[in-house]
Amino acid sequence: MFKKRSLRGVAAIASLGMVAGCGYLSDSGSGDQGPIVVGTTSAPSTLDPAGSWDGSWELFRNVYQTLLAYPNGATAPEPDAARSCAFSADHRTYRCELKDGLKFSNGAKLDAEAVKHSVDRIRAIGVQTGPAGLLGSLDKVETSGDKEVVFRLNKPDATFPFVLATPALSLVPPVDYPANSLRKDTRVIGSGPYRLDSYAQGEEAVLVRNSSYKGLADRKNDAVTIRYFQDSAAMVKSLREGRIDITYQGLAADDVVSLETKNDENKGLELHEGAGSAINYLVFNPKDPAANDIAVRKAVAQTIDRAAIAHKVYQDTVEPLYSMVPQGFTGHTTPYFDVFGEPDPGKAKKILDEADVSTPVPLTLWYTTDRYGSDTGLEFKEIKAQLDGSGLFRVTLKSRPWNTYVVGYEKGEYPVFGRGWQPDFPDPDNFIAPFVGQRNALGTPYDVKRITDVLLPRSREQSDRAEVVKDFQEAQRLLVEDVRLLPLWQGKQYLAADEDIAGGERSLDPATIMMMWELSRKTSW
């Protein structure tokens, strides 16, 4: 749930979502007032779904379609391009029947063969940090006629419908998307609520209503323009000057605090705060001698002060995190706090001394400059100050823009590097499975046999996800034993919008991806 913080002297008491549904406002679309303009600091790394397991999904959700999706307010996926889907009794076969008359935005038929092609090419192309890792339980895809798709699984997997609902499994036409390579241009041919009318990389995506769309989305507007910003300050300046209507992803802590203030600068704006599921963490690369030393990793974990990061850098707009599974998800525990407790450089020194590790330990920490918000650089400076200040480490900081940063960690170039994670779907599985195994979202193999061979397979046999608590609690304990991943903080959700924009709160799906079609202009009070 979002809390609305009004930033004008006299403001509507109800939240955007409540007001938009109450009859005082029209949701008839933007009409002649022009497209709704959304600002974000999270630009796509690619426009081809087979190549992305990152923030590109924010665009994909709006221009591509999936077999299943999330209706407004739902936490379980329902048929979208599909008319119906169902598991076999043993959870090893999943069948979907398509709706009648589905078409892509270029008029091509969306049939069972197109679905099969869309899924098969993800694995055939096999981008190292792409979405193929989500399909580990899939054996093969079969078709029966034009409308039936059959997914044969190599093991029971109750989470498979969640996977099909992710933008990774976006549907694409076979003629236009090669089976063995990614598209390199800036065109999108999908069957989602919008068409991508134009695109300028790193600058702007212009979305217009797709007239041939058949799916769950009830579009409240006819067009949306997404503007990409390098930093939060520029985005907020555009909001205040009326050049964008709403912000999403990337509000820096300073700007959140500034937007909370009632003054002339913020007149006519509203800030909304809600629980978030995004996490940030450090990854230790075993290819690096220092990062591969478990004593070094444990000493870093014993030294880092998460509360100081949350307060000093993020001004309490995030919360300290002591597990890879965040608060609010089934089975969440705090194993990193249970093992290491409060930050203590003295204990960290003892860990290094007992392992006969010479100090200060040289470590190079990498971060991306343009993916997780404008405060990332400040966060890593604080981490460096904490580690250097202990006298146990000598830290060098390095950074790159996201597009080249991804290439670097795929090649295993970084000894220690920062990553963020937005869940693909609302289940604890998605905070464990993507980071373990030979092929994972980090490009850094991480074998934890007990998790990959026992706990995950066993949990995926359970349709009732309340029954998986013990398995995920054990998985969290196993991850803390060798500290290959070090969780730092869990984010909150902030949306800042012009007071005349409705639908902000209800626009976020369970993975907190913005469903642009929920936004509308208030046409009367």
Automatic annotation (TrEMBL):
Keywords: Signal, Transport. The keyword Signal applies. GO terms for molecular function: peptide transmembrane transporter activity. Transmembrane segments: none annotated. One of its GO terms (biological process) is peptide transport. Belongs to the bacterial solute-binding protein 5 family. This is Peptide-binding protein. It comes from Streptomyces roseirectus.
